[in-house]
């Protein structure tokens, strides 16, 4: 297990380095420059060149790359060109919203997807199974922004049960009731992603329910609930865990549309602003943080396999 952990750590570092390199190249391949965007169309060429020089954008591309990599290795992600603040501070300020949104959406995904898929697998081709497949198809087909607008219109506009937009920090205010602002966004984001988890849970459970050990458990006189939960669902958990873990990473990093629909100050809206302003340090910093998140989730998922299934051993 220790040798596997060391190998995976090395693979994580290589993946992160590749993300740093690819992101840097792509960002500097985009037409336009941040100096012209920040100064506006009325800026003179001398003003643009002066600003580029102060930011180091007039240096050779290889020198900019070398400086960026060495700074990242020291934990310095640079300073935002537009916000004029350290990139890590900006990301951490916005990360609270995205993380809470991702966690609450994950509760929706797990609460709907796993029970729905498991119940549908118990009686395949029944009305419950067909209903689950219909909901899964609807979840996969409905755009998250459209569902968000419908939820906003009904629960915020008509019933006035939840706020329609905005979010105030729970950490800074200490008021957990601020999470009410994330209920509708989390439902809109979670329901769409629950479809994939439900289908994966159904497929995995159907495969496990055909195994001999399940029939043996029933033949021993165990009640159906014990057979389903202890013997079937646990053995079907590995593919479900894989889908759920990457769904969480996807929701945290790809909630751009949902955050903009509900005017949430998260990572998604930060990326949009940074792209429009050609704010290279912020874009590169966000991409690096998201890449680290994906790599860590992938690593933790692999480790979890060993606890879910004792037969799995890493040499």
Structural summary, described in words:
This protein is mostly helical. The chain has a domain at 96-279: MetI-like fold (Orthogonal Bundle). The protein has 15 helices and no strands. The protein has helices at 2-27, 34-39, 45-55, 61-73, 87-122, 127-141, 144-158, 170-173, 183-209, 212-219, 224-233, 237-253, 256-261, 267-276, 280-308. α5 (87-122) runs antiparallel to α6, α5 packs parallel to α15 (280-308) and α7 (144-158) crosses α9. It is globular, with a radius of gyration of 24 Å. The termini are close together. The model has no long low-confidence stretch (mean pLDDT 80).
Secondary structure elements and their pairing?
Blueprint: H1 2-27, H2 34-39, H3 45-55, H4 61-73, H5 87-122, H6 127-141, H7 144-158, H8 170-173, H9 183-209, H10 212-219, H11 224-233, H12 237-253, H13 256-261, H14 267-276, H15 280-308
Helix pairs in contact: 1-15, 5-6, 5-9, 5-12, 5-15, 6-9, 7-9, 9-12, 10-11, 12-15, 14-15
CATH class category label of the domain at 96-279: Mainly Alpha
Give the termini separation. Answer: 6 Å
**DSSP E strands, number:** 0
Helix-residue proportion: over 70%
Query: Gyration radius, to the nearest Å?
Result: 24 Å
Helix-strand pattern, N to C? HHHHHHHHHHHHHHH
Specify the overall morphology.
Answer: globular
Model regions low in confidence, pLDDT < 50 over at least 5 residues: none
What would you call the structural class? mainly alpha
Percentage of residues in strands: under 5%
Please state the average pLDDT score.
80
Indicate the CATH architecture of the domain at 96-279: Orthogonal Bundle
The description of the largest β-sheet is: none
* The CATH homology group name of the domain at 96-279: MetI-like
Q: Number of helical segments?
A: 15
């Amino acid at each position: 297990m220790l040798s596997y952990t060391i190998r995976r750590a090395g693979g994580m570092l290589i993946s992160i380095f590749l993300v740093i390199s690819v992101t840097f190249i792509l960002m500097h391949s985009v037409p336009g420059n941040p100096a012209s965007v920040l100064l506006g169309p009325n800026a003179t060429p001398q003003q643009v060149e002066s600003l580029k020089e102060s930011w180091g954008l007039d240096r050779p591309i290889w020198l900019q790359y070398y400086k960026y990599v060495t700074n990242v290795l020291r934990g310095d992600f640079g300073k935002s060109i537009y916000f004029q603040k350290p990139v890590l501070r900006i990301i951490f300020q916005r990360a609270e919203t995205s993380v809470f949104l991702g966690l609450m959406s994950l509760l929706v995904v797990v609460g709907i997807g796993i029970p729905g898929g498991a119940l549908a697998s118990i009686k395949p081709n029944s009305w419950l199974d067909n209903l689950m497949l219909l909901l899964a198809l609807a979840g996969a087909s409905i755009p998250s922004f459209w569902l968000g607008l419908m939820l906003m219109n009904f629960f915020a506009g008509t019933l006035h049960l939840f706020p329609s937009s905005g979010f105030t920090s729970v950490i800074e205010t200490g008021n957990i009731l601020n999470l009410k602002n994330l209920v509708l966004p989390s439902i809109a984001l979670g329901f769409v992603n629950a479809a994939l988890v439900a289908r994966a849970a159904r497929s995995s459970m159907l495969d496990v329910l055909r195994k001999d050990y399940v029939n043996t458990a029933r033949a021993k006189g165990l009640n159906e609930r014990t057979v389903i939960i202890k013997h079937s669902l646990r053995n079907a958990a590995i593919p479900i865990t894989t889908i759920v873990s990457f769904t969480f990473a996807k929701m945290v990093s790809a909630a751009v549309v949902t955050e903009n629909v509900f005017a949430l100050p998260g990572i998604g809206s930060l990326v949009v602003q940074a792209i429009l302003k050609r704010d290279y340090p912020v874009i590169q910093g966000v991409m690096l943080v998201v890449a680290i998140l994906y790599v860590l989730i992938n690593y933790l998922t692999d480790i979890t396999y060993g606890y879910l299934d004792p037969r799995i051993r890493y040499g």
